[in-house]
Amino acid sequence: MATESTRSSGNVFADLDLPNADVLKSKSGQAIDIKVAIRDLGLSQQEAAERMGISAEQLASLARSGFAIFAEQDLRTWLARLKD
Q1: pLDDT in tens, 58-78
Q2: Could you tell me if 14 and 53 are in contact, meaning their C-beta atoms sit under 8 angstroms apart?
Q3: pTM higher than the cut 0.70
Q4: Whether pLDDT at 19 is above 90
């Protein structure tokens, strides 16, 4: 049985025809960068949340792929705080 495939545009959110696809792609990239920074720094979730200036609950939401509910600028700020 043959299956059809469609080449990706490079933005899965656009491929799914979601509104604000470019913003969602940017936010997802920043969320991934935050997760990688936390891992590379060897921080616990509580330590990372404190360093980012957010609650552990907010970080838990972000970790569960809840990036879409946060403002793009907030994600940038949190990532910068991790790297400081």
Answers
A1: 999 998 878 999 999 999 999
A2: no
A3: yes
A4: yes
